[in-house]
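Quick one from the shared queue. A colleague (R.T.) flagged Peptidoglycan bridge formation glycyltransferase FemA/FemB family protein as missing a structural entry in our internal table.

Convert sequence to C-alpha cells.
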Amino acid sequence: MSHELKAITREEHLRFIADRPSVSPLQVPAWGEVKPEWRAESLGWFDRAGRLTGAGLVLLRPLPLPGPKRYLAYLPEGPDLHWGTVDLAGLLRPMLAYLKGQGAFAVRMGPPVVARCWSADAVKAAIADPRVRRLGDVTPTAKDPGAARIAGRLRALGWRRPGDGGGDGFASGQPRHVCRVPLAGRSLEDVQGGFNQQWRRNIKKAERAGVKVVRGDQEDLRAFHELYVETAERDRFTPRPLSYFRRMWTALTAEHPDRMRLYLAHHDGDVLAAATMLTVGDHVWYSYGASTSRGRDVRPSNALQWRMMSDAHELGASVYDFRGIGDRLDADDPLLGLLRFKIGAGGEAVEYLGEWEYPLNRLLHRALGVYLSRR
C-alpha cells in the first residue's frame, strides 16, 4: 500500500517519537539545529486513513555550485519506518520523489535495522583466535533473516551501499557496528556481574582512589572540550569546536531536559575524564568521550562509564549503547583496544544494515564521490 509523504511540524514529529521505544538522537527535530550548515526538515509517512505511521529527519546539504541549488539529502540512522513491510517501495518511492522535488541529487539513509549480534563471550573468543580477522567471520549469536530480505529489496529498488559497484559513494557516515550493553530486566548487580574481571577491578580501584563522577552543566562544557582536544591530539583525529557542543547542549536540552547529559570524573581537584550521554525513549547512547593522560592509574574512564550506565538504568533504559566499534580483530588494529574496553563491560557487538544511497542525478553523485575520494 502506497503512503503519502509530506513535511510535518516539529510538534507532530515529537509526538510520533514519544510513542516509539527507540529513535536515534540523530533523528529528533533538535538535531537539525546542531547542523546549521544543513537545511533540516521533518518528514511524515501517512497511510490511507491519514495516520502518521513513520517519520524521519532529513538534512539537506547544498553543493557549492552556481545555478539552482542542488542538495545531498541525508537521513542519519533513519527514517523510522516499518522496515519489515512487504511493500518497501511504497514507503521509499514517495520519499525519493519528494526529495527530488526539493533539489536533491542523491539520498542517503541508515535503516535502523539490526542484522546480526555477537555476545561478549563470542567476541572475546574471536579476539583470542589469531585465525579470525573480522567480526563478520564469526558465527553470530543471533541473526535476523528479515534484515537480509530488506537488503535484497533495497538493491532491487536501486539502492546501494556506499562504494558498491565502483566506489563512488560519498564519505562514510554513521557506524555500522556498535557495542550495546543490555539493561532491560537486569539489576545493576546483574549488569556489573557481566563485566570482565579487569572492569570490576578498575571500578573498585577508582572508588578506593576517591574518583568522583558528577553531572555537569553547560558551563562545564569548556572543561570537557579541553580534555576532548587533548584526546584528539593523542588519537589523531580532528576535534569539533567548543561551539558545536554548546549548540548540541542548547538544542537538545531545550527539546527534552534529559536528551543530553554531561558527566565529569574528578580526582584530587582535577577533571580526568568526561563524556556526553544522549537519551531518546528507552535507549541511551554514550556520545562523545574525552580523557587526559594524567591519572590513568585511578581508572576514571571505568568510573565514568559505570556512573552513566547506572543513571541509564535508573532512567528505565533497556540498553546502554557504547556506539561505534571496528569489525577488524587483528592484533595490530588501532581500534582493537576500544573494542576490548567496550566488550569488557559485557556489551554485545551489533551489526546494522548500514547506510544506503540512491542517486537521483548520477552525474552529480559520481562527481561528488570522486571529489571526496581525493580529499
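Residues 165-171 have pLDDT under 50 and may be disordered.
The CA atoms of residues 166 and 366 lie 9 Å apart.
Added to the table.
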